[in-house]
Amino acid sequence: MPPRSAKPAVASTRICFVRHATTPTTGKVLPGRAKGLHLSERGLAEAEKAGERLVGLGPVAALYCSPLERARETATAIGRRLGLDAVVERGLVECDFGEWTGAELAELRKKPEWQAVQLHPSGFRFPGGESFVEVQARMAGVTEQLCARHRGGTVVAVSHADPIKIAVGDALGVPLDLVQRTVVSPASVSLVLYGPAGPTVLAVNSTGDLGAFAPPALNGQRRRRAQEPA
User: Fold this and answer.
1) Contact present, 187 and 207 (Cβ < 8 Å)
2) Cα gap 56→60, rounded to integer Å
3) Which residue from 13, 10, 8, 86 is spatially nearest to 47, judged by alpha carbons?
4) Alpha-carbon Rg for the chain in angstroms
5) For residue 59, what are the CA distances in angstroms to 14, 55, 166?
6) DSSP for residue 65
7) pTM
8) Where do the domains of the chain lie?
9) Mean pLDDT of 191-218
10) How far is residue 220's CA from residue 203's CA, in Å, rounded to a whole number?
11) What is the rounded CA–CA span in Å between residue 26 and residue 183?
12) How remote is the C-alpha of 7 from its chain's centroid?
């Protein structure tokens, strides 16, 4: 029996941030929060594959997603593999790009403000939209909420590139002005362990096998099965 003064250990929570899969405009247009953008055929296949990979992590307590169609469709495909229904979490939504919503990236890169987006995001607000500082606060809030709801469990959160970059950068303690140095590809997984001593980033932009990040007990079971005679 532990002494009465001992405090119970606080269980760590794993959040798997998944970027939505490919759409017809990925890499070409800044869609933002505009409605009506769905996954491409390639994206649907990517989402299914992401679900297969996430099964390797072991039991998942809950599946959340941004309210935008491309994120919900990605989460639905993942949910089929995990046996979970996706729950819409508005805090995971894409950045509000304001007047830049729907603009072609090739044209946006010609703007002088684009340098600020890449090199000084902490001081930039999208015209008529959200600032990176606001996205950072929003993602910190939703991360705290998910950890509180699912203490000790594993959560999958389907979101968008910039919010995930910012959440991962926050976990790493990286200044906001450096988050654009991180790549977050469609259907990639970035895995963060949130524990009592602070977050630990286990994977960023992973598009491969996730079995190495399964709980030790689950990996032990797999090794024993692999060693059993056929």
Assistant:
1) yes
2) 10
3) 86
4) 19
5) 11, 8, 26
6) E
7) 0.90
8) 13-218
9) 90
10) 21
11) 14
12) 32
Please, what is the end-to-end C-alpha distance for the chain in angstroms?
A: 44
Instruction: Specify whether the CB–CB gap between 44 and 77 falls below 8 A.
Output: yes
Q: Say yes or no to pLDDT of 11 above 90.
A: no
Amino acid identity of 7?
A: K
Work out the pLDDT band at 222, boundaries 50, 70, 90. Answer: very low
| Helix 161-172 and helix 132-149, axial crossing angle in degrees, nearest 10 | 70
Question: What are 30-60's pLDDT values in tens digits?
Answer: 999 999 999 999 999 999 999 999 999 999 9
Q: Which neighbouring-strand residues pair with 107? A: none
Residue 186 burial (10 A CB sphere; 0-12, 13-18, 19+) = buried
Q: Which fold has domain 13-218?
A: Rossmann fold (3.40.50)
Average pLDDT over residues 12-24: 97
Q: How many CB atoms lie within 10 A of CB 110?
A: 8
Closest residue by Cα to residue 26 from 159, 139, 185, 230: 185
Closest alpha carbon to 10 in 200, 196, 146: 196
How many Å apart are CA 128 and CA 39, to the nearest integer?
A: 27
Q: Which residues pair with 140 in a beta bridge?
A: none
| Contact call for residues 86 and 71 (beta carbons, < 8 A) | no
Task: Extract the tokens encoding 120.
Answer: 């000084």
Report d(CA 129, CA 182) in Å as an integer.
Answer: 23
Give the amino acid at 45.
A
